[in-house]
Amino acid sequence: MHIRSLSLAAAAVIALIAAPAFFSSADAGDLNKQIPAAAQDPANPAPSETAVLAGGCFWGQQGVFEHVKGVTKVIAGYSGGSRDTAVYEQVGTETTGHAESVEITFDPRQVSYATLLRIYFSVAHDPTQLNRQGPDEGTSYRSAIFAANDGQAATARAYIAQLTAAHVFPAPIATKIEPLKGFYRAESYHQDYLIHHPESGYIQVNDLPKIEGLKKVWPQYYRAQPVRLARN
């Protein structure tokens, strides 16, 4: 079921109905926990690097990483398919190969690629879910790391192996490492969606708890003011 292919208003109403039960049964502390740092975390002296990650709806992914220290820009978009099909309505048919993704530009001297993966696996999404996150289901919501180079791929592979060996999660990690063949910016109304629509039922139930998780679990990486895309 592709929840957000319905009208956004209808999805918000459904989420608002579910919200009281959600918030009464769980909070960020129940949903998130610290996980070990990556043992393989090579330094990068360059002033800027980019990472492309997919883990469910890009509204929440963008919202989380905009609050991470050292991140300078986060764009919501599509990766895994062709430029011609990088359109929201087409991606939602689950036939294009795309995943809703975020392109994170960051200063690796302040926050490393491996640290972003630590946040990604612990509070940004559930890496044990196969082709779904929360109410959203389909390959466009898959957990995927789109590696821009061999170094990123090696770091991601090593970290997944490390977390698996340590039995950090109660189920196998479903995250796939895919080569980055292209990232295509999503439509303008998707950008900074969480910032512009914090009252949305969908955002309140599915995405705001992720930011609270970042703040609570990783206070050393959290910054209160997000880096808005409109400022870049």
Describe this protein's structure.
By secondary structure, this protein is an alpha+beta fold. 35% of the residues lie in helices and 17% in strands. Mean pLDDT is 88; it is low at 5-30.
For CATH, the homologous superfamily is named as Peptide methionine sulphoxide reductase MsrA
The proportion of residues forming helix, as a percent range, comes to 25-40%
Taking all residues together, what is the mean pLDDT? 88
Could you give the order of the helices and strands?
A: HHEHEHEHEEEHEEHHH
Low-confidence stretches: 5-30
Taking the sheet with the most strands, its summary is: 6 strands, mixed
Please give the order of strands in the largest beta sheet: 7-6-1-3-2-8
Count of discrete structural domains = 1
Number of helices: 9
Report, as a whole number of angstroms, the end-to-end distance: 35 Å
Number of strands: 8
Which characteristics define this entry?
two-stranded antiparallel ribbon; globular; Peptide Methionine Sulfoxide Reductase, Chain A; 8 strands; single chain; 232 residues; six-stranded mixed sheet
List the helices and strands and how they pair.
Blueprint: H1 8-25, H2 28-31, E1 49-55, H3 58-65, E2 71-79, H4 88-91, E3 99-106, H5 113-124, E4 132-133, E5 136-137, E6 143-147, H6 150-165, E7 176-179, E8 183-185, H7 193-196, H8 201-206, H9 208-217
Parallel strand pairs: 6-7
Antiparallel strand pairs: 1-3, 1-6, 2-3, 2-8, 4-5
